From TrEMBL:
Gene3D superfamilies: SOR catalytic domain. It comes from Orenia metallireducens. This is Superoxide reductase. Residues 16-109 form the Desulfoferrodoxin ferrous iron-binding domain. Keywords: Electron transport, Iron, Metal-binding, Transport. GO terms for molecular function: iron ion binding; oxidoreductase activity. Coiled coil: none annotated. It comes from the Bacteria. PANTHER family: SUPEROXIDE REDUCTASE-RELATED.
Amino acid sequence: MSYYDLKKAANGDDKTTLEDKHVPVIDAPDKVKKGEYFEVKIKMGEGIDHPMEEKHFIQYVELYADYYQLARVNFTPEMKAEVALTIKLEESCTLRAYEFCNIHGQWEAAKEITVD
Ligand SMILES: [Fe+2]
């Protein structure tokens, strides 16, 4: 499901903590109406904030509807690594969020969404 740097684990980082800090969390309705705007919030990490420092930060997050890229948001260390996007869909799909940490690489999350 997600890229994971084994070398980092050998150096003492706990895999679970790394996942908690990196796997994006997609907050969106399970069901929406065709063609109607709704909000998708993405935050990086569950219950723990990822560092946003010059040497270690989330560089970007991308949102896909199946294989179609809906958005890409670039972050700087001055920002909080979360975003709210307003989108509309024409058919049911899997929303996927890919976030990229400059040290720990790419992490993915997915959420099924039904369009009526
Ligand atoms: Fe990281």
